[in-house]
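User: Working on a comparison across species. This one is Anaphase-promoting complex subunit 4 WD40 domain-containing protein from Guillardia theta. Can you predict its structure so I can line it up against the others?
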Amino acid sequence: GVWTCACSRYGSEVVTGAADRVGRVFSCRTGQLLGKIVGHLRWVFAVSWVGDLILTASSDRSAKSWDRRNVLLNDPSGRKDSFDERPLAGIRFVEGGQKLRALTKTITSILASTDPLDVLKDEELEAGAEKQVERKADLAPDGERWAFTTYGSNYLISYPNGKGGTALDSYNFPAAGTTTRWKPGSNNQVLVGGHGGSLALMNGEHAEATWAQAGWLMDMDWSPAGDVAVAACQNHTIKLLQGGNATENVGPPAMSVSVSGDGQRAAVITMEGSGYTVKATGLSILNLSSGEVETEADDPILLHAKLQDRNCRWVCNDGYIVVLSAASSILDCPVVSVVDASNGDTVCRFHSPYPTDFTCMDVLDDAEGQPQVVVSDFIGRVYLLTLQNLRGRSQETSD
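Assistant: Here's the predicted structure for Anaphase-promoting complex subunit 4 WD40 domain-containing protein from Guillardia theta:
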């Protein structure tokens, strides 16, 4: 139930505190939910306004202040659509953010507009080529071809067949493949990782370079220039040295990794455990030259980061990191969090109005300098988020 409430200075908004550990801001005129305040571990029993700051106190023995502008970024309505309730294996911005490319788990390629969010083209897999994507798919620079694995000893590439459908090519790989990443600037070279320490830069059947990563591979990423690649493994985070064979240990065990635009840093979702029994322990920013941790985030929501690849991404010229978290005991819905890379503070969140976990994400700094985020959930709902007020803004939310 609701424990407390307080009106803003001019009575246009009201903030409430509740037993579900969440504060909520409503419009007094329309009753519309404008945003949520998430971060307390127990009941929120006191709230107040000081100008544009919202103050909250909780039985978790903490008091926090929140900038109203950040809270209102949590608008739960969003712009959403469903691609006929088909679970997606990948989704990407293309054509400068004007369109989206998506791939369903059953390998149907979708082209959609973003304004409005509408399906333009639906290219189903050719008859007789039945396959299912087991992990996340990655889109080539040409915006047409997807690379992915099916846990077999191969990796696959799907592409338009010129007849309104999708064709599929399969290539041998020396292990059960788990993760694929196209090399930036190349429509032929794919970094493929699998169980048993296999990691190779593939060009069709040919391995142009191989690395022994000695651990269960969780995720990998390239710098935008394609000159740095980093792999997140269950026993360490490693940088792949040019030419193959050699690697350099640069960080702790991790389950997701994103390399910054300048190739100097990596954001990693750190983890503990092994095999299939692992869990997130936080978000760290690693210096890829020294291996030192530059920044750590201790937001409890991030301890429920999704166990999947491509779970954290840089935006705003490496100023912020977007992280997906699953529904949890703290909040019964999945969350998109935006973290300031300079200090580890969470500056805003988006809460799904549904309990269904997110599966895929992509980010883009648009032509106007505003970061765009697209996420989809397990049943194919798609959300387009514009994270306003981030570029050029100092962090004002504090504990």
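For your comparison, note: The radius of gyration is 21 Å.

User: Helpful, thanks.
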